[in-house]
Design brief:
This is Ditrans,polycis-undecaprenyl-diphosphate synthase ((2E,6E)-farnesyl-diphosphate specific). Homodimer. Its cofactor is Mg(2+). The protein has seven helices and six strands, in the order E-H-H-E-H-E-H-E-H-H-E-E-H. By secondary structure, the chain is an alpha/beta fold. The protein has one domain: Decaprenyl diphosphate synthase-like (Undecaprenyl pyrophosphate synthetase, 3-Layer(aba) Sandwich), CATH 3.40.1180. It has a six-stranded parallel beta sheet with strand order 3-4-2-1-5-6, sandwiched between helices. It binds 3-methylbut-3-enyl trihydrogen diphosphate (2 copies) and magnesium ion (MG). The site of magnesium ion (MG) has 2 residues, from loops.
Length: 239
Amino acid sequence: MAIKNQNANLKNVAIIMDGNGRWARKNSLKISQGHKKGVQIVREIVEESILQNIDSLTIYAFSSENWQRPKSEINAIKKLVVDAINDQVPELKEQKVKLKFFGHTEDFGEKVIKKIKYAESETFCEDYKLNLNVALSYGGKQDILDLVKKISKEVFDKKLNIDDIDESKIHESSCAPVNEIDLLIRTGGDKRISNFLLYQIAYAEIMFIDKFWPEFSKEDFKECVSNFQKVSRRFGKRV
Ligand code: IPE
Ligand code: IPE
Ligand code: MG
C-alpha cells in the first residue's frame, strides 16, 4: 500500500527568507531585484511543500523592524506584494493553496490591505492542500504584547477567568495562524530568530542555511525535510 503522507510528523514549516539584499549586491543588481527573485523562490518552495504533504508554510516577508529600511525599498516591497498577489492568486487557487496574511498588516495601507483581503477570500477553501501564511509587519514580541493586552481585557471585562488562561488561549489570541512550528529554516547565513514566531518555535527544529534566499532551491528544501526526518524529537522525554 502506498504511504499517503510520508511526512506525517512534519506539519508546520516556517522560513526566515533572508539574504535578498546581499544576493542582489553580489550580482550587481538593485535590492528590489533581490526581493523580486525572492518571490519567485517562494513559488517554488510552495510547489515542493505541496508535494511533501506539508500542512502549513509560514514565511517571514516583512518584520516590524524592517520599517527602518529606506523608503524606496519599502515601497518596492509594497509593490511586490500587490504584483505577487495579482500574478499568483489564480494559480494558488487552482492548487488549493489557502493564503493568510498576519501581523500589523494595516501598516501597509489601503491598497495592500484590499489586495490581501482579495487574496484571502479568493483562495479560501475547505479542502486545501497547503496553508500559506505570510508574516507582514510582524514581530514576535509585538504579537505577545498584543495578546497579553487582549487576554487582560477579557479578564478585566469578566469574560475570562485567570485560571482558564492556558496554552490554547495564548495560541488563539496570537495573530499567527499556526500553533507549533515543527521546522524553522533561516537562509542567509545568520544564526538568529530576528523576532519571528517566538512562542510557536518553542520546540521547532532549527536549520540555518548559508545560501542567500534567492539561491535556495527545491533540492535544498528537500534536504531540510530529509534532515528533519532523521532528528530524534524527544520533547524532554527519555526515549
Ligand atoms: C530578507 O532579505 C527580506 C526582507 C527582510 C524583506 P534581506 O533584504 O534582509 O537581505 P539581506 O539580509 O540584506 O541580504
Ligand atoms: C528577517 O530578516 C526578516 C525577514 C526575513 C522578513 P532581517 O534581514 O530583517 O533580519 P536581521 O536584520 O538580519 O536580524
Ligand atoms: Mg536580512
